[in-house]
């Protein structure tokens, strides 16, 4: 090899050495900064004890999360029997009475079970009827307005 080539190789090797040295110093600085931040709170525990404590805390949180999930599942199952669906229809059943004062109200749960309350208002008074609903149908004969209230509730 000639002298010029050796000079270039030497300069390249020295340049690479200085780049690696700068990189190592920056990594050392970052590691020192991380160490200072990690132990800044005055903890005198070693890293192994800190990891053990964190693992215990995560285990406790996992157990609490499982309990919350079971509780939420129970609430969801219980809620399926609550009235969730509401249908309301106002109507005028008689031509001689004014206004839509009469109504049909359907209250159903998630299984489409519940009841329909109908109020018929006329000149002579108001009559109220209640009919049981099972899976959107009833053993009693339903009026068009009651059927419409059930349909709105679904």
Descriptive report:
With 154 residues, the chain is of the alpha+beta class. It has 3 domains: 1-44; 46-79; 85-153, no CATH class. The protein is 51% helix and 21% strand. The chain has 3 helices and 4 strands, in the order H-H-E-E-E-E-H. Strands 1-2-3-4 form a 4-stranded antiparallel sheet. The protein is elongated, with a radius of gyration of 39 Å. It starts with a helix and ends with a helix.
* Helix content range: 40-55%
Give me the count of strands: 4
Beta-strand share of residues = 15-25%
**Count of discrete domains:** 3
Strand order of the largest sheet: 1-2-3-4
Give me some keywords for this one:
154 residues, alpha+beta, 3 domains
Reconstruct the topology from this structure.
Elements: H1 3-38, H2 47-79, E1 85-91, E2 102-108, E3 114-122, E4 125-133, H3 144-153
Antiparallel strand pairs: 1-2, 2-3, 3-4
Give a brief outline of the structure:
The protein has 154 residues and is an alpha+beta fold.
């Amino acid at each position: 090899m000639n002298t010029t080539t050796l000079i270039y190789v030497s300069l390249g090797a020295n340049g690479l050495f200085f780049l690696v040295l700068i990189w190592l110093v920056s990594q050392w600085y970052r590691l020192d900064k991380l160490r200072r931040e990690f132990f800044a709170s005055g903890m005198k525990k070693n890293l192994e004890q800190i990891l053990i404590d964190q693992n215990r805390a995560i285990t406790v949180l996992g157990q609490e999360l499982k309990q919350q999930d079971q509780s939420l599942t129970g609430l969801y199952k219980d809620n399926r029997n609550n009235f969730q669906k509401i249908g309301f229809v106002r109507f005028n059943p008689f031509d001689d009475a004014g206004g839509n004062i009469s109504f049909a109200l359907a209250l159903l749960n998630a299984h489409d079970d519940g009841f329909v309350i109908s109020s018929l208002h006329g000149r002579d008074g108001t009559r109220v009827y209640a009919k049981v609903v099972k899976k959107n149908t009833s053993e009693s004969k339903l009026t068009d307005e009651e059927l419409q209230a059930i349909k709105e509730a679904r």
